[in-house]
Amino acid sequence: MNVVFHLQVLFVLTPFAACQEHKVPASNPEISAQIDYKLEKSMVTTISCLSPKGSLPINYTLYRDTTLVNTLVAESRPRAEFVVNLSFSELLETLKCKADNGFGPKYSRGLIIDLSVNLTSKPDPPILGQQLALSCGVTFNTQQYEWYFVYPTKNTTNITGQNQYIIESTNVGIYYCSVYGYVSNGIEVLVQDLSVNLTSKPDPPIVGQQLALYCTVTYDTKENYTWYFVHPTKNMTKDTKQNQFIIEAANSGIYYCSVHGHFSNRIEVPEQDSSFQPVVVGVSVGAILLLILIIGLICYCCATKAHRFDIA
User: Quick check: helix, strand or coil at residue 73?
Assistant: First the structure.
């Protein structure tokens, strides 16, 4: 009975023991860098190495080109972090991590800490008076970004922990960002032609006929086009995404449009003069009577000449 019990226990525990002894090779480690702070001639930098897969413990080794910098042993999954003081020339060298848990070394990609700072904007190019999103890009992790706004009348500086800065309404000027004293390229907001021009087809408009209005600006915009119709009896306003507006039968009045708060020229559809039609009819009748009279005189003259010729 005891022999059977021990065999059952052994049968249950053997797979568990086999699983416990099974080890997984370390995968190629991931490498990243975060600059902690800047000294006069160097940067204090944290280099992180992590193999996402592999049995612990894992021995991590950091190299700068072929020079061994430091070695750490990770007993748990958290990444190995090497805090190193790198001179500006050493920052240009290739950093690499090696991970080994007894199955042979695995290496990370090479990492060069590029200290260049790149500033981009959306929209590109910026549009004066509209919202502008600035993004300050670097190849390393950092906790501080400095923003510089150089305007014609004043300069301002802001410090944030994010690499993006939103300006609700841009002014004319130049925008920069910097990280640890390294300054980005500049993005300039120029004075733009913000005028709005309204045209029509036909030109000039004819009351009662179809009228096509075109509201144009010199820049790309996603703003609404606002249309204003000022009639003798009522006023109307309409917003559209298109810069064209069709009126099937134009009424007398004044038409204009606006984009982003800037107004266009005005187009007027004049009232039709009600006294004009009787005058035209009267002139037409008079012209017809005059023509009949002239024809009658010509016929009379011709008949008189013929009669005299017969007598002679």
Answer: strand
At 50 the three-state DSSP class reads: strand
Token pair, residue 51, equals 């193999």
CA distance 69 to 62: 5
What 3-state class would DSSP assign to 176? strand
Render pLDDT for 134-167 as a digit per residue (tens, 0 to 9). 999 998 888 889 999 998 878 999 999 999 999 9
Among candidate residues 163, 161, 158, 160, the one with its CA nearest the CA of residue 139: 163
Q: What is the DSSP letter of 310?
A: H
CA 311 vs CA 303, 304, 306, 308: distances in Å: 13, 11, 9, 5
Nearest in space to 269 (alpha carbons), one of 192, 204, 199: 204
Three-state secondary structure string covering 214-239:
EEECCCCCCCCEEEEEECCCCEEEEE
The 10s digit of each residue's pLDDT in 257-312 is 998 788 999 999 988 765 544 554 455 667 788 888 888 788 777 777 665 655 55
Task: Tell me if 169 sits within 8 A of 177, measured CB to CB.
Answer: no
Selection from 39, 37, 92 nearest residue 64 by Cα:
92
How long, in residues, is the chain? 312
Each residue's pLDDT tens digit, 84-103: 998 888 888 999 999 999 99
